[in-house]
Amino acid sequence: MAFAFIKHDTKIDFIGKRHIAYAISILLLLVGLGSALWGNGLRMGIDFAGGVIVQVQFAQPVEDEVLKKSLDIPELPGISTQRFGEGARDYLLRFSSAENTDAAALRTSVLAALAKAFPGNDVEIQRLEMVGPKVGDDLTNKALGALYYATLLIAVYISGRFEQRWMAGVAMAAVLWGGMYLAGLTGLGMGWLVLVALGITLVVCFVLKLNFALGALVGLIHDVFITVGLLSLMNVEIDLNVMAALLTLVGYSLNDTIIVYDRLRENLRAAPKQPLASLINRSVNQTLSRTILTSGTTFVATLALYLLGGGVIHDFALTMLIGVFVGTASSIYVSSAVLLALGDTEFYVHQQERPVYEKPGEHGIV
C-alpha cells in the first residue's frame, strides 16, 4: 500500500480563492517596494558595493556603541559594526576603502585601534575580505545578468515543452539577447537594462500568446521581487550568498510550476470539454501531496541551516526560507492564474495539438 500524505481526491477550490492571494501578493510587493525606495533600501554587501569586511572576536564582551566610536578614525572610513553570533564577543566590521589598500596595513590599523580602545581585552581577526569598487561593479553586472538570462532560457524551455513552439521561443531569445547587447552600448546601468529586458520579454510572450511561458515568468518575477523586498524590510545585506539563494529559488519555483503545468496538460487531454478553472483546481489538488512534501522537507532543512548553520550561512538560509514559501504559493495562485486570465480550455487544448505531416504519396497523390 503506497504512502499518501494527502489524499489524491481532495477538492480544495484554490482558484476560487485566488483574489485573496492577489491581495496578499500586492501588499507584500508594495511593502517591499516601499522599503527598497523609501525605507531601508537595498543594503548591498561588499561583494557588490566594494569595501572591507573584518570579523573580529574579543576575549570579553563589548558594547556596540563603544566599539563603533573607538573605530571612528580616518584610517577606517564609513565604519559600521554588526554583532555576529552570541555573547557580544564576535563582530563584523564594514568600512569603505580605496582599491589599492594593503591588507596587512588594514589589519594593523584595526588591531591598533581596538587595542587602544579596549586595553586588556584581547582581540583576534578571524576574517578579512577586500573588494575594490571596480570588482564590485563587475560582480553586480554579472549577478543581474545571470538572473535575467536564467529567466529568458526558462521562457524558451516552457514555450517548447508546453506549447510546442520551440522556434518562437528561440527567436524571442535571440532578439532579446541581441537587444540587451545593443542597449548595453548606450551606457545604461545593468539594473535598468534587466528591468527593460524583462518588460520586453513579458510583452513578447503576451503578443506571441506564449501563455505558459508568460505564467512561469510572472511567477518567477513575483517570487524574486517579494523575496528581495522582504530582505530589504529586514535590513538583510545582499551579498553573493543571497544572490546564490535567489538563483536557487528561480529553479525551485520553476520546478513546482512545471509539475502543476504537466498535470494540467494531462487533464486537458483527458477532459477537453471541462472549464479551465476546474482543470487547474484538479491539477493542483492532484499534485498537492507532492508539493507539500517537497516544500515541507526543503523548508525544514533550510530552517535547520538558519538556526544551526552559523552566521556565515544565515542570510542564505533566510532567503531560502522566504523563497520556498513564496515560490510554492506563486505556482498555484500566480503562474496558473495567468493561464486562466489569458485563455480557455479550447485554446490550450489546441496548443497541445502537434501538426500531422503526411508522407509524399501516402494517399496516392505525389
TrEMBL record:
Domain spans labelled Protein export membrane protein SecD/SecF C-terminal: 120-174, 193-343
Q: Name one GO molecular function term.
A: protein-transporting ATPase activity
> Where would you find this protein in the cell?
Cell membrane
Q: Name one GO biological process term.
A: protein transport by the Sec complex
Q: How does it assemble?
A: Forms a complex with SecD. Part of the essential Sec protein translocation apparatus which comprises SecA, SecYEG and auxiliary proteins SecDF. Other proteins may also be involved.
Tell me which family the UniProt entry assigns to this protein.
Belongs to the SecD/SecF family. SecF subfamily.
* Designated name of the protein: Protein-export membrane protein SecF
Protein's organism: Desulfovibrio piger
* Gene responsible for this protein: secF
